[in-house]
Design a protein that fits this description.
The complex is a heterodimer. By secondary structure, chain A is mainly beta. Helices cover 0% and strands 54% of the residues of chain A. Classes of the chains: A mainly beta, B mainly beta. Chains A and B meet through β5 and β10 of A and β5 and β10 of B.
Chain lengths: 113, 110
Amino acid sequence: GENVEQHPSTLSVQEGDSAVIKCTYSDSASNYFPWYKQELGKRPQLIIDIRSNVGEKKDQRIAVTLNKTAKHFSLHITETQPEDSAVYFCAASPNQAGTALIFGKGTTLSVSS
Amino acid sequence: NAGVTQTPKFRILKIGQSMTLQCTQDMNHNYMYWYRQDPGMGLKLIYYSVGAGITDKGEVPNGYNVSRSTTEDFPLRLELAAPSQTSVYFCASSPARGQYFGPGTRLTVT
């Protein structure tokens, strides 16, 4: 089955810096890769996703890149703000819907002002 | 729309007790899921459903059961609670892309 590894487990940056979180996956059949943000005590919230026929996707300050050959994908947050502090999870799935997401273990991002 | 709702928000069970975690969505999504999240860990899939009457096991199904008699409801049953089932349980539903999570149920088994 699919296995998703996520690094780093913790990341501390200064406000305004960029943050990068990386994930690798094992199943070459996976073609859908969402990212979730979870604030303390809250539910995970979808922030961006990408399908394998796309190499990069941007939404304002966040972007996701995918290298299907190497089986890794990354989340990039630019101009970080204190409200970006949260736990971020990557996930992989062979489909956008109807199939389980396999999650990484999460990255705790701390943005200090 | 209320989205995905879960009840109860908190529950303390004694070892060996049973309970049902309720999950309801009002978005007419076909796909629904149950995950558990242990402290400092990611989410592990327990069971999922692709439509009413259809359920399938996820990564960690042992000790749990589900049913899907309607599109809206996807309850999770714990038959004989064990301390290892202490966790936060999230229900999610999915349209064509992404999964949308409920607020979670924090369960403690002592």
